[in-house]
């Protein structure tokens, strides 16, 4: 589980920098991988606030990726 936490952290940080430099499609993919990781961790640990936050982030990232592609 610790490796998944680090994966979620690294991909989320990478996504934030990629999007901030207008590298949108890879940035949103990184954000989505981070959100999925943290959503899984929240579900496994029964951490409802973490699960809720990252589920919403995942939805926002899907919308952002859709807008970047279209």
Plain-language structure description:
It is built from three helices and no strands. It has helices at residues 2-20, 24-44, 48-69. 23% of the residues are buried.
Helix-strand layout with pairing:
Layout: H1 2-20, H2 24-44, H3 48-69
SSE order in H/E notation?
A: HHH
Count all strands and give the number: 0
Number of H- or I-type helical stretches: 3
Radius of gyration: 12 Å
* Mean pLDDT rating: 96
Measure the end-to-end span.
35 Å
- The geometry reads as globular
Helix content: over 70%
Report on the biggest sheet: none
Main features:
about 70 residues, mainly alpha, about 0% strand
Summarize the structure.
This protein is mainly α and 70 residues long. The protein has helices spanning 2-20, 24-44, 48-69.
